[in-house]
Amino acid sequence: MRDVVGACPLDCPDGCSWIVSVDDAGQAVKVRGNPEHPFTDGGLCKKVNPWLEFAADPSRLLFPLKRVGPKGSGTFERVSWDHALADIAAKLIQVRDRFGGDAIWPYTGTGNVGAIQGAGLSAGVRLMNALGACNHKGTICSVSGHVGLLYSQGFANGMDPEDVVDARTVLIWGANTLVTSQHFWPFVEKAKAGGAKIIVVDPVGTRTARRADDHVALRPGSDGALALTLCRLIRDAGAADTKWIEQHGVGYDDFSALLDEWPLDRGARVCDLPPEQIESLATQIINGGPLAIKLGQGMQRHAHGAQAARTVSCLAAITGAFGQPGGGLVYSTGPAYAFNSVAARMPHLAPGPQRDRIMTRLVDELNDGVEAIIISGANPVVSNPDSNAVKAALSREDLFTVAIDIYPTPTTDYADYILPSTLQHEQTEMNDSFTHYYLNWNEKAVDAPGEALSHTEMYQRLAIALAQHDPTFADECFQASELDYARALLDTESFRANGITLDALRAKGFLRLPEQPAVDRFHFAHQQAEIDGLGYLPDWRGVKEPARGSGYNLIAIGSDWHINTVFSQTEKTLGRASEPPIVVSSSDAERDHLTDGMNVKVWNDRGSFEATLKIDDTGTRPGVAAITKGWGSQLINTTVREEDSDGGHGAVYHDNAVFIAAR
Ligand SMILES: Nc1nc2c(c(=O)[nH]1)N[C@H]1C(S)=C(S)[C@@H](COP(=O)(O)OP(=O)(O)OC[C@H]3O[C@@H](n4cnc5c(=O)[nH]c(N)nc54)[C@H](O)[C@@H]3O)O[C@H]1N2
Ligand SMILES: Nc1nc2c(c(=O)[nH]1)N[C@H]1C(S)=C(S)[C@@H](COP(=O)(O)OP(=O)(O)OC[C@H]3O[C@@H](n4cnc5c(=O)[nH]c(N)nc54)[C@H](O)[C@@H]3O)O[C@H]1N2
Ligand code: SF4
Ligand SMILES: [Mo]
To answer: I need a labelling partner for 101 at 20 to 30 A (CA). Which of 26, 114, 258, 619 fits?
Structure first.
């Protein structure tokens, strides 16, 4: 028996380090959390504890498949790797020669967020660059918040989440930490044990909201208004940290003039909150420093999501929280993983300028000159906005589609070829986190079953097949191994200076990143934001599609049982989870004559889906309908529109009005 250190590959903030036990016959027999990891501390989660059972599910993809029926029918036959790759290479060359490289789209999702095989897809991008393929812009998850914070605090990691233990007010703002980032919760608990108040700002009565000292169930999309009202109350109480603001703030006087427009009664009206609740929150912030704000991804999936993140960060600045141990605002620690992606991806191989293609504008992009798409680790039929339009766009007979996955999904049904990928314990990978500062290594523990291949090996073999048509692809840079990619990614001044080398990483399994800079210049106002359309000042900009009349704002959050669509296929076969119900408050249910357990239709003019109704008065506000995302056979995103947010082309999942009625 031997133990191999690895890491969870999923798109979860926690980035757990794990240990795979392999028996003498070379079989993985157990996966458990790595007790040495300082942040994840020996734990995984109920989704990943049965990882080996998941890997062995009989529905897993084990061989390359070629479509034999009509697109979308899901009828395929088994073919050899040589056959599949020769045909794919010929098609890609044909498309490049006829339409140009930017008709080819390497579309990568978040099934595995690793730096080599995963969302970064170092393994395939060199080759795609050499084909002149377009640049995939991974806009599906968190980009709006990142863009918003660029205009104020400059980056998304304005404090180390571990330091929250020293905070005395913890605002969990649009995050469902207990469900979506459970390894952060013990740090929150420690803060609480030290006397901190935990306050959740969320329109939905999540598990996290129910555990808080106070739940501020504001109107969806009104976050900016709440932040401005709180800043106004803090300023008027003489509690703004003028010393920190003088030293680090830019444009405070103009911001202060904006606050004049945000008296308590206006904030209470816009957010639809009792004025006393906002006042008492301001009092808590004033008397209970340091203030730590954990901003979640949920609050920025709105038309004005970037602006919302930008505005909330002003609260951490006006209180001087950035200057206090245990204070500040963290959205994501992602930016701290500053890899040398140029060395890994080799953009210079491209024959000319490459066109960007926006992940969350899949339908528009497919209808605008895409002839071949390679979808890897993504399930856009379920995950993307406007599922019906996605299906229609993927149905185009002359669109050549390759899907690389581990399970058949509603998306793989539309592929011309399905290629089977290894799972994390069967491959070598390097993983980051968006809630801690430890870089994780994942050593391959066992061989894959069937003919599943790592993405690295798939692209090595594809290069050989492409070289039959174009000698460019015979270059040895396309045969780089996982270790070569890892070395390239780690080849930076800062990693070297801090002893973060591949050898050191492999020896320990994880390494702490270099010390991160503190927020030094905070922009309460920004000329560039004005040029980019967000306005010089972070004023509240409304909700694009508010629920009106008997409508509801549909908010689809992370499920306890699956992570996006990963596990949603197998949870169904294993019978542990069932189709998510839709949750509304009893006052809304009464108005619309809905009863608990009733089968309802949820719809708007874009689409509809069915669900079982659940009435719950433990926190979800009237006018909101809450459900969980990612259940493969329940296409909730038929109701979501394909539209850009105000920053970075983010999606607007929660800025979505629907109606609900009995079926
Ligand atoms: N178990 C599990 N864990 C997951 C995931 C999963 O699917 N399941 N998904 C993973 C992924 S991909 C990500 S990006 C992270 C996301 O992590 P979180 O940001 O915690 O996840 P969400 O559940 O999407 O959204 C958080 C909360 O935002 C709230 N929200 C929606 N609109 C608003 C608003 O206008 N204002 C405010 N204040 N709040 C709002 C929602 O009600 C929700 O409770 O979680 C990851 N972890
Ligand atoms: N309504 C609504 N929709 C949402 C959201 C929301 O909050 N509300 N959240 C959005 C967010 S935050 C995200 S991140 C996106 C996620 O959207 P996607 O990027 O589509 O990610 P997943 O749905 O997780 O799909 C990942 C696919 O990768 C496959 N996979 C898993 N592991 C591997 C592997 O190792 N190799 C390969 N090749 N494949 C693998 C899985 O089987 C699955 O089919 O969904 C978004 N959709
Ligand atoms: S899904 Fe998140 S909590 Fe679960 S093992 Fe993976 S990183 Fe850890
Ligand atoms: Mo995400």
So the answer is: 114
